[in-house]
Amino acid sequence: MSMKWWTAYSSEAADTLKGGSAGRRAAGTLAVLMLSTAIAGCGLLPSEPQEEDLSAIQLPQISKKPEYEVTTKTLETKVSGSGRVLSTKEKTMYFTLDNKRLKKLYIQSGDQVKAGQPIAELDVEDLRKQFRTQQLALKKQELTIKDLLRKKDEMDPIDFETQMLGFEEQRQQLADLEADIAKATLTAEFDGTVVSVSVQEGASVKAYDPICVIADPSKLTVAATLSKDDLAKVALGMEVQVDIGNVGQLQGKIKQLPVEKENGNGNGNGNGGGTPPPTLDQYLLVDVPKLPKTVQRGTPLSVSVILDRRKDAVVIPLSALRSIGGRTYVQVVEADGTKREVDVEVGQQTSTDAEILQGLTPGQKVVGR
Q1: Among residues 325, 332, 336, which one has the least CA distance to residue 356?
Q2: What DSSP state is assigned to residue 268?
Q3: I want to staple 184 with a disulfide (CB 3.0 to 4.6 A). Which of 122, 129, 225, 268 is the partner?
């Protein structure tokens, strides 16, 4: 016989067991809601910084020295100077009288003049007065000399000769004054064009101050100046490159070397005389066979005299040449990229290139600095 025992809490326990499943389901639902809320809340937090992409940054490379190929070229050694186009027939006109005022200027720049035509005149009224005074004195002296000649036999020979010499001296002084007065008028020596005028009427003029320049514009030549050291390196017949701005480069040859003249203290601008202006023979003259007709006297230019020219010379840049003590060498780049030092013999050098006489052959590569 079996018995079923009931307790006071048997019914409540059953209800509790039933309610436990529902509670677990509610707790699970609550957990899911809390997890969703937590995940959603993460979106409210600040975002983490992204890592920088460093792949585009290039690291600095160790500088590589330049490499140059050994080549051949025509190498020229030159000396340079400046100058201008002048006429082979031109004259700087000046007075030889000193400290006189310019009374009249008859010409202006660009005028055509004829030989013997007056150009300018100095104020020499003081000399004219002296001339008239001495001329009268000489006429009086002539009367004395005539009487002296009649009494020559009665006079002491020495006394007679002394008076005659005094008379000749007066005559010479008069002749000198007359010559000085004639020098006060400046005239053209040949037909030509007045290419420049250096003074104005009323100016004080010293001896050898330039008044104007007269030239024959149909006979032009290239005139240049070089430094004293460079001039010692050139000779007649050397080839010259003439560079005229509005024309280009022309070829010529030296036809005349300058003649040195002593310089005085004059500056040729009215503030000091005593030195004649430069003449054509004081320039280095260059014969240019095909001087264009558009070139005019006074056009500025530059010249380069070729002292030495080597065709097919083996050359490298000066920056590839190295020296230490008495040794001159280069660094040669081999086919495999290695470098070795090679001693070289150097010929002529320009501002950019050095001629290699021994030690290198065209096609090799050398290292610069």
Answers
A1: 332
A2: S
A3: 122
C-alpha span between 242 and 251 (Å, rounded): 6
**Looking at residue 334, what is its pLDDT?**
93
Dihedral class, residue 248 (left if φ above 0, else alpha if ψ from -120 to 50, else beta): left
The C-alpha atoms of residue 355 and residue 312 are separated, in whole angstroms, by 10
**pTM of this prediction exceeds 0.90:** no
- Give the mean pLDDT of the chain: 83
- Residue closest to 107 by CA, chosen among 196, 191, 190: 196
pLDDT in tens, 94-134: 999 999 999 999 999 999 999 999 999 999 999 999 989 88
DSSP class of residue 144? H
**Residue appearing with tokens 């840049």:** 317
Number of Cβ within 10 Å of residue 308's Cβ equals 12
- The pLDDT value recorded for residue 52 is 59
**What is the DSSP code (8-state) at residue 102?**
E
| pLDDT for position 139 | 85
Output DSSP code: residue 56: T
Q: 257: which 2 tokens?
A: 């070397």
Q: Starting from the edge strand earliest in sequence, which strands make up the sheet with 100-105, in order?
A: 185-187, 118-122, 100-105, 204-205
Place of tokens 């050994």: 70
Residue with tokens 């104005």: 200
Q: Write down the pLDDT at residue 217.
A: 86
> How many CA within 13 A on the CB side of residue 290?
6
- SS3 string, 329-344, reads EEEEECCCCCEEEEEC
